[in-house]
From TrEMBL:
One example of a Gene Ontology biological process annotation: proteolysis involved in protein catabolic process
Active-site residues (renumbered): E135, D203 (proton donor)
EC number: 3.4.-.-
Protein name: Putative beta-barrel assembly-enhancing protease
Annotated TPR repeat ranges: 308-341
GO cellular component, one term: periplasmic space
Lineage, highest ranks first: Bacteria, Pseudomonadati, Pseudomonadota, Gammaproteobacteria, Vibrionales
Signal peptide coordinates: 1-25
Organism: Photobacterium phosphoreum
Domain of life: Bacteria
Length: 488
């Protein structure tokens, strides 16, 4: 699949939180008396709005993985768990961050982030699912809102600092733990105690969700126990253990709860193993040599049923390093055996693109779309191949429809910008780039791009009217973003 440059690692999250916290601090003494329910601190609607805002900041500040194949996998896994969770009040969105550190976290509004490093440490899909189920429970139980409420009742004067500390603990544990030390000792201890109780509750509810979804409930204590043992004597803990402490009592409690459910023995998940191989090949930070060494080491101890997923990953490494014949030798038998497997279709499309065999790729993708017409992976791949083959209008038709249906997907807008650029349609290119900027809360850039697009469009045309209308929307969104960012 086409790959885009990663966003720079700005300190935007910290900067925006600091700005918003200063405004909150000025009003700290006028905070209302907060009751016993989390809804009195944050309504569900406001949590969703905060979640949208944080996602915009994350897109601008963190190395998000915008790979449609991996995105579709993590969304499918996450929503399978959500479908079996109780108390769901918000939509859910699952996303991946390229980071070797072991971590996963839940933000406001059902946004759950997973570090790519987690795939290296989770031995089965059930273990990965156990971490995600735990994060889903944080959302359904509204732990962020409940923690804020608990601290607001105890010490309203430090509310602003606590908001920032809590959010940083969630998304950037090391920075968040340092921020906690800037609050009073009483507030800090109260927050940590509240967090420990939230962790146990998330374990309990997460295990129930895991079991209902058909995964192995023992996966949670197995994974947590192995993680705790691995880092028992180290002075530098991974991010996940900073924000999710693992005392022995918590592991014991999760093991006892898992024992209440029937034992489940599941075969290895092909999709999980393929996703893991794809991440090792492209999204863990390994050099090509290191990735090949990893796959070769794993192949030596793999069972026959696991070899195909490892060969897929090895094939991707060869593909990305320009060794196309070696890549084809590994990938061709795989797609021949499973012609509708999206992982294999995507890899073979890459190979066809490198070899400029556009008609072959188009035929394969159009055939696959007959069986999976809503697949983001297939739609984006086909649009990309048509673009490379200079079938601009056909590609544009797909991308226009796709971006309308998936307005938060950076891939659609990026390809749309490329399409307009290749056709020398500057107005369309600027508008698509404006949408990319808006997804990252880069409001000045978004408004500037749309202003230029409107100027480039024919006077009185439908396009000019559309760009002007979008400009009005962006200015409203910018004002709403700033108001939300500076108020609580």
């Amino acid at each position: 699949m086409f790959q885009f440059a990663k966003a720079p690692r700005y300190l935007l999250l910290s900067a925006l939180l600091t700005t918003s916290l200063s405004a909150v601090a000025n009003n700290a003494t006028s905070l209302p008396d907060i009751g016993t329910t989390a809804a009195s601190t944050l309504t569900i609607d406001k949590e969703i709005k905060y979640g949208d805002m944080y996602m915009q900041m994350m897109r601008a500040s963190r190395p998000m993985i915008n790979d449609p194949v991996l995105s579709e996998y993590i969304q499918d896994l996450g929503h399978k768990l959500v479908a079996n969770a109780d108390g769901v009040k918000t939509p859910f969105n699952f996303f991946l961050i390229q980071n070797y550190e072991i971590n996963a976290f839940a933000l406001f509004g059902g946004n759950i982030g997973v570090h790519s490093g987690l795939f290296l440490h989770a031995k089965t899909e059930s273990e990965l699912a156990s971490v995600i189920a735990h994060e889903i429970a944080h959302v359904t139980q509204r732990h962020l809102a409940r923690t804020l409420e608990d601290q607001a009742k105890k010490n309203p004067a430090t509310m602003a600092a606590l908001i920032g500390s809590l959010l940083l603990v969630v998304a950037a544990p090391e920075a968040g733990m340092a921020a906690l030390h800037t609050t009073t000792a009483v507030s800090m201890q109260g927050m940590l105690n509240h967090t420990r109780s939230n962790e146990k509750e998330a374990d309990r509810i997460g295990i129930a969700t895991l079991a209902k979804a058909g995964f192995n409930p023992q996966a949670m204590p197995h994974f947590f126990g192995r993680l705790a043992e691995q880092y028992r004597y180290t002075t530098k803990l991974p991010a996940m253990l900073l924000s999710h402490p693992l005392p022995e009592s918590r592991i014991t409690d999760s093991r006892m709860r898992a024992n209440n459910y029937p034992k489940v023995k599941l075969p290895p998940s092909e999709r999980y193993l393929l996703a893991k191989s794809r991440i090792v090949a492209r999204n863990i930070g390994f050099s090509k040599t290191s990735a090949l060494n990893w796959f070769n080491a794993e192949l030596k101890k793999a069972t026959p049923t696991q070899r195909q997923e490892l060969n897929y990953g090895k094939g991707l490494v060869y593909l990305d390093s320009g060794q196309y014949n070696k890549a084809q030798q590994l990938l061709l038998p795989l797609i021949s055996a499973e012609p509708n497997n999206l992982f294999y279709i995507d890899a073979m499309t890459d190979l066809d693109l490198y070899k400029k065999q556009y008609d072959k790729a188009i035929a394969r993708l159009e055939k696959a779309l007959q069986y999976q017409p809503e697949s983001s992976v297939l739609q984006l791949n086909l649009a990309n191949v048509l673009l490379e083959a200079k079938h601009y209008q056909q590609s544009l038709n797909i991308l226009t429809r796709y971006s309308y249906q998936h307005p938060n997907d950076i891939n659609g807008w990026a390809l749309l910008a490329q399409n307009y650029a290749k056709q020398n349609q500057r107005a369309g290119e600027l508008a698509a780039m404006g949408e990319l900027a808006a997804l990252r809360a880069q409001w000045k850039l978004a408004i500037s791009n749309y202003t230029q697009a409107a100027q480039q469009a024919t006077l009185g045309s439908l396009d000019q009217a559309r760009y002007d209308a979008r400009l009005d929307q962006l200015r409203v969104q910018q004002a709403q973003f700033e108001a939300l960012r500076t108020s609580f």
